[in-house]
Amino acid sequence: MDKRIELLIVCLGCFLGGGFRYLAEFFVSFRYSDQFAVLMVNLVGCFIIGIVTALVTKKTVSKSWGKFLTTGFCGGLTTFSSFASGINRLMFFGSTGLAVVYIVLNMVLGILFVYLGCFFVLGDKLGEIFD
């Protein structure tokens, strides 16, 4: 595929992911907190990346769709900068313990959700993609 078209596909995915992120932050932050909204979009993004990785590996989804969904959509949906900003905000207001819990939850649950996304598609054959 032409790299210019691939770039447009990724940009479209990023646009849509960013829109979904805005909506999640608006609706979740309104009721709970900014940090919870970031945790939620990070976990959803990790799960989607797990699913798409497995589908591309199985050749059920093309690499172009994989780029659209992972680099594009999930790239726009999730962000490390908001994660880091949330940690700084928690520490600035004296909630260092909560900041540590937030870091651990994002990291451990994020890795778990990538695994779950792959397992959701591949099931018992999950080990085959790492051979």
UniProtKB/TrEMBL annotation:
Keywords on record: Cell membrane, Ion channel, Ion transport, Membrane, Metal-binding, Sodium, Transmembrane, Transmembrane helix, Transport
Superkingdom of the organism of origin: Bacteria
Membrane topology value: Multi-pass membrane protein
Location within or outside the cell: Cell membrane
Cellular component per GO, a single term: plasma membrane
Binding site for Na(+): G75, T78
InterPro entries found in the cross-reference section: FluC (IPR003691)
Membrane-traversing stretches: 7-24, 36-56, 68-87, 99-122
GO biological process: cellular detoxification of fluoride
A family per Pfam: CRCB
Catalyzed reaction equations: fluoride(in) = fluoride(out)
Family (UniProt): Belongs to the fluoride channel Fluc/FEX (TC 1.A.43) family.
Function: Fluoride-specific ion channel. Important for reducing fluoride concentration in the cell, thus reducing its toxicity.
HAMAP family named in the record: FluC
Protein name: Fluoride-specific ion channel FluC
Gene assigned in the entry: fluC
